[in-house]
Amino acid sequence: MIRVGLLGCGNVAEVIAKDKSGINIVALHDAVRERAEHLSEITGAPAYDSFEEFIRQDIDIVVEAASVFAVTAHAEEILKAGKDIVILSVGALAEKEFRDHLISVAEKEGRKIRIPSGAIMGLDNLKIGQISGITKLLLRTTKNPRSLRINTGERVLLFSGRADDCIRQYPKNINVAVALELASGHEVEVELWADPAVDRNMHEIFVEGEFGDFYLKIKNNPCPENPATSYLAALSIITLLNNLEKAIIIGT
Ligand SMILES: NC(=O)C1=CN([C@@H]2O[C@H](COP(=O)(O)OP(=O)(O)OC[C@H]3O[C@@H](n4cnc5c(N)ncnc54)[C@H](O)[C@@H]3O)[C@@H](O)[C@H]2O)C=CC1
Ligand SMILES: O=C([O-])CC(=O)C(=O)O
After folding, report:
1. CB 79 within 8 A of CB 102
2. pLDDT value of position 78
3. pLDDT in the model for residue 39
4. What confidence score (pLDDT) does residue 152 get?
5. Helix axes 231-243, 11-18, angle to 10 degrees
6. Count of other CB atoms within 10 angstroms of residue 191
7. Which residue has the CA at smallest separation from atom 28 of ligand 1?
8. Is 119 annotated as belonging to a binding site?
9. Which of 68, 71, 147, 173 gets mutated to test ligand 2 (max ligand atoms within 8 A of its CB)?
10. In a mutational test of the pocket of ligand 2, which residue from 141, 164, 223 has the highest number of ligand atoms less than 8 Å from its CB?
11. What pTM value is reported for the model?
């Protein structure tokens, strides 16, 4: 059974820890000790204060659900320690130089970097952008101001521009833009809106290309402990882990 280590023991990790589908969590690490200890009580897996000790454990795959910074700081070491990695804070890969370096380390070590679909649907078939022209790719994300930690009584456009600039400004809110970019191999135009009238995390994706066009709108229920994060993101990781060893692979 695949041995999973959780890097980051916050909101997403807690949903994973409470899941009953049989994920085998064997080690935990969080910069805040109490968070790892809390998940230790739920899973029975040991919590390690130091990252170095955590990564020495008998882990097959590390699930990062921590922060963009945690990926920058630890992803290379995880791969070099012979473990695969699931990266939820995929915004860390917006910078090409870092991304290319990490991929080359994974290739050299014979390891895999897995990017879950996270808080959106449709990421799988968008990979066709790597072989077929895409002429438009726009992500319009709308969240309640509370999720974005701002105060406004009306709908406001907080950002309009490139994904890499947006993730630098909102590292906890727009990882999906970078996932879309990596899947499609195409630059994403991003709009980030704060709207007090919405209580869900909404992502609208507009795509045009040689295949035709599509429009997708998802209205995600936020996680109770962290309204910036959609519950779907945690479900997507659980699903990824449950499918790792299946003989049939569904989706592009
Ligand atoms: N790709 C996607 O679609 C999505 C990505 N995310 C990202 O996933 C990550 C996790 O989300 P949540 O669980 O809601 O966040 P959270 O804030 O509830 O939990 C993160 C935990 O990681 C810990 N942490 C942060 N940096 C660390 C480091 N360098 N070393 C060790 N521990 C560290 C924090 O102390 C915290 O306990 C966030 O970066 C979030 O932006 C969230 C939703 C969707
Ligand atoms: O959970 C969401 O709806 C999206 C999100 O925070 C992210 O992409 O970082």
Report:
1. yes
2. 98
3. 98
4. 95
5. 50
6. 17
7. 70
8. yes
9. 173
10. 141
11. 0.98
Q: Is 203 a catalytic residue?
A: yes
Ligand 1 in contact with 218 (CB < 6 A)?
no
Kindly state the tokens that stand for 2.
């695949």
d(CA 24, CA 100): 30
Place of tokens 């290309």: 209
- Please, are residues 112 and 84 in contact by the beta-carbon 8 Å criterion? yes
**What is the reported pLDDT for 249?**
95
Atom number of ligand 1 nearest to Cα 178: 1
What is the rounded distance in angstroms from the CA atom of residue 15 to the CA atom of residue 38?
Answer: 12
Residues recorded for the chain: 252
Contact 10 CB / ligand 1 (< 6 Å):
yes
For strand 212-220 and strand 61-64, is the pairing parallel, antiparallel, or unpaired? Answer: unpaired
Q: Is 220 annotated as a binding residue?
A: no
Is residue 48 classed as helix, strand or coil in its secondary structure?
Answer: strand
Distances (CA, A) of 12 to 94, 166, 195, 236: 21, 22, 24, 10
- Report, as ranges of residue numbers, the positions in the chain whose pLDDT lies below 70: none
Give the burial string for 22-44 (b: 16+ CB within 10 Å, else e). ebebbbbbbbeeebbebbbeebe
Q: Which long-range CB contacts under 8 A does 153-157 form with residues at least 24 apart? A: 153/196, 154/196, 155/193, 155/194, 155/195, 155/196, 155/197, 156/193, 156/194, 156/195, 157/191, 157/192, 157/193
Q: Quick one: pLDDT at residue 114? A: 98
* Ligand (nearest to CA of 89): 1
ipTM at complex level: 0.98
Ligand (nearest to CA of 71): 1
